Amino acid sequence: MNRIKEIFKKLKEKKEKALVAFVTAGDPNISQSLNIIKSMCKAGIDILELGIPFSEPTADGPVIQKASARALKQGINIKAVFKLTKNIREFTNIPIILFGYYNPIHLYGNKKFYIDAISAGADGLLVVDLPPEESDEMTNEWEGDKLALIRLIALTTPRDRIKKIANSASGFLYLVSKTGVTGSAGIDTSLSSDKFKIIRSITDLPVCVGFGISTPEHVSAVASFADGIVIGSAFEKTIEKNINNSELESIISKQTVEYKKATKNP
Amino acid sequence: MQNNKNKKMPDQNGRFGIYGGRYVGETLMSALIELKQAYNKFLHSPDFKSEFNLLMKNYVGRPTPLFYAKRLSAQCNGAKIYLKREDLTHTGAHKINNTVGQILLAKQMGKSKIIAETGAGQHGVATAAAAALFNMECSIFMGIKDIKRQAPNVARIKLLGAKVIPVDSGSATLKDAMNEAIRYWTEAIEDTFYVIGSVAGPHPYPAMVRDFQKIIGTEAKEQILKQTKKLPDILVACVGGGSNAMGLFFPFINDSVEMTGVEAAGKGIETGKHAATLGHGTIGILHGSKSYILQDNNGQIKEAHSISAGLDYPGVGPEHSYFKDLNRIQYVSIKDKEALNAFKILSETEGIIPALESSHALAYAIKEAPKRSKEDIILVNLSGRGDKDLGIVLEQTNLDIS
Predict the structure, then answer these.
(1) Could you give the CA distance from residue B224 to residue B44 in angstroms, rounded to a whole number?
(2) Taken in order A73, A75, A81, A84, is the CA torsion positive or negative?
(3) DSSP B75-130
(4) Which residue of B182, B186, B301 is in closest CB contact with A179?
(5) How far is A255 from A234, CA to CA, in rounded Å?
């Protein structure tokens, strides 16, 4: 949790925006996944979002659906995600946000999930299909506040609801830049910029924008207003394309560097 | 029996006890809130009610008959079996009650496009028909496995002017069609109304679909009282997502009547190839609500199996989970083979070809009737007709039609 606060503070001083990278844990397999994340960290990502694979990813487009299926084929479960988190913690101090759907977490047990997530070194959790109306059943079982609860705000979220969401969120807010699933092409920056202004007038929590951002040009456009930029499908696409390419890690690394450059001096 | 004064179920958060709710991404929340408000507004509006009732009568063909299956009962040599003839509705299954209701609501809300998921294709056909009636653009999501085994319904959907969108992800059946419909809806909520076909999904769908389907039980109650001067002893209906069962059961819920929901045991519970979510599932979250589901030890959804596409679903409506825990409704399961047998028996004894889904309910009634007295009444929801299943049945039963 404190790692999240620190990174946003540090970035503000450096006049940079946060590059938030999403990858599905264990895609295409555990050891390669660890290496990909290692090279992303070296190349300068500020926050890592680690996806917990689920069989019914209803908020995801085809790219992350496939990534999730590849990880599940490798037998990735929550235990394996925690193990991977621990291994990542050995080489980096950036915030790690776990990102998933509620059913696997619910079955694992909310209380146990909180304890194990903390001890693995995770800093936050985002549950895609758990709006504030439903999340008490989870957080009531958390014995402590060491895990930030990142929440989504959509373009369709009205003002009074933004308040409700912000009040029950911590760490940062994730603004979904388009009505659609992950990886949908293109982004209308003006829509999210307008929404961002409304959110900013309501809360001081940092706001990261994601969905549909795939080029350094997009990154730099979003960096001109938001506190962070989330890239997911664009990375997963690279993984999918280069699954048997021994250069995969260096390709990911180059891609990361390009994005990171675009977050500086917005 | 417990005291089930459940008139106020679900609560305002869409909860039936611990079940139900709205487990969806934030983009969909505003659409669900809008839908709930619209539904609450129109549900109580006299104009909406009278338009709905008129359509039920003149378009759907309601009330559907309640038929005493004399020869079948005689063959079973026990309780009397009555059939609620939902197979005689327009488009051939109970699904049309709900699609007319929802599309009427969509029209009131100013939506211009309709989407739906379908398994057996009955909900797809019923949605396409109602969309045509109201001049709405309609797309039906259907798993490619179901497209193959329910070809006549695919053709019907297309004839009714709707688009069929094939879904090849996952098991390529109903659950995957629903995943894809949810994804599409997330992108198109502005002008698109999602017609869910079962008492499943996020709030307010389970309550709304039940309310459109309870016409089945309301009519059946009136008819059985008229015909026999007493309430039935037991109600029987098949359960996939559970809409025809809830539609029949709900108006009897506070009466002293036994209720049995029949799930698909597929190739046998012990083989793991079944769809008996209530009987052999565990509590989880699927497609926006908390309910019993079929899942593995890691919380991944398991594929269901049933010869009947309409029961081939690893989830079930949250209200069923609630009544299961209260022991108000008992849930049993019937194998593919038993359902096929019942399909043949009803065809031969009464001249009625039932849907494979409904054949599960019949199979249970046929097993149960001999154990009961001749005074007892078993009321079975014959939820749909079986024309769509002829291909599967011929393939599975070596029936000689030459």
Answers:
(1) 28
(2) negative
(3) HHTSSEEEEEEGGGSGGGBTHHHHHHHHHHHHHHTT--EEEEEESSSHHHHHHHHH
(4) B186
(5) 9
Residues of the domain holding A98: 3-261
Q: What's the pTM?
A: 0.96
Q: Is residue A11 part of a domain?
A: yes
**CATH number, domain at A139?**
3.20.20.70
CB contact under 8 A, B25 and A158: no
- Interface subset of B 9-38, CB within 8 angstroms of A: 13, 21-27, 29-31
CB B346 within 8 A of CB B362: yes
The answer to whether the Cβ–Cβ distance between B186 and A59 falls below 8 Å is: yes
* A136 domain residue, yes or no: yes
- A94 inside domain: yes
- Is B29 in contact with A154 (Cβ distance < 8 A)? yes
Size of interface A-B (CB pairs under 8 A): 111
Query: Cβ of B300 and A55 within 8 Å?
Result: yes
Q: Which residues in chain A have their CB less than 8 angstroms from residue B182's CB?
A: 58
Residue A215, exposed/middle/buried by CB under 10 A (0-12, 13-18, 19+)?
middle
Q: Please, are residues A44 and A18 in contact by the beta-carbon 8 Å criterion?
A: no
Chain B residues within 8 A of A151 when measuring between CB atoms: 26
A266 occurs within a structural domain: no
Residues A213-260 have pLDDT tens digits of 999 999 999 999 999 999 999 999 999 999 999 999 999 999 999 999
A209: Cβ–Cβ under 8 A, 6 or more apart, which residues? Answer: A174, A175, A177, A192, A196, A222, A226, A228, A229, A230
- Between strands B289-293 and B282-286, the pairing is antiparallel
Domains in chain A, number: 1
Q: Are B79 and B368 in contact (CB under 8 A)?
A: yes
- pLDDT of A66-101, one tens digit each? 999 999 999 999 999 999 999 999 999 999 999 999
